[in-house]
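Worked problem 6 (solution included).
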Amino acid sequence: MKSIPVSLFAALICMTLASACATDDPNRRTKTGAAIGALAGGVIGNQSDSKNGKYVGAVVGALTGAAVGNYMDKQQRQLEDRLADERRSQQITVTRIDAETLRLDVRSEASFDVNSSSIQSGFRDSLNTMSEVISEYDQTAVHVIGHTDSTGSQSYNQQLSEKRATEVTRYLTRSGVDRTRMRFSGRGETTPVDVNTTSSGRSRNRRVEIYLKTIVKDRENEAFRAPI
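Solution. The predicted structure is:
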């Protein structure tokens, strides 16, 4: 859907306020608040551009200053607590990358069968838990990135990583995470975290990473840029 210019929304706000705030209207405060809320929501909804992965313009409620660290601390603690079983079994790890970014690493054995993009039934409970926390912390952009080992051709591995990232994104969306907050991609075999010459190394390289990046006021676009 084509974005509506912010300038047009500003004009609409002015027109609506002029109407809602008539001095002889006993309900002018209620109407004014409703008008601003509706139009601000429209601005937010029209700033998401899924084609290029950017988020344009200001976000109402974007975090600033010290609030960012506190927000991410709480989100990290809740994810660690809610995913305690998966963390103990090393199926999922939660890592703080920097003050504004968390990364969840999901081992392939816990998520997909070999050469498959179908989510294992046992992984769905973990995804449900993630979706609940991610939905609660709604000032976060979500990046889902699929990876493979080097077995098979590069083109096959690239396609498989994309399919896995797509399936996780779809599941999180069906579980309640706002799709406009999400970006997904596959990197095939290009970014291994271990060697591909051993079975344990290949197992580590087959993974899905979920990055949670805070939406910071005046730097909203940065949250929607793909992680390095």
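Discussion: Residues 66-223 form a domain with the 60s Ribosomal Protein L30; Chain: A; fold (CATH 3.30.1330.60).
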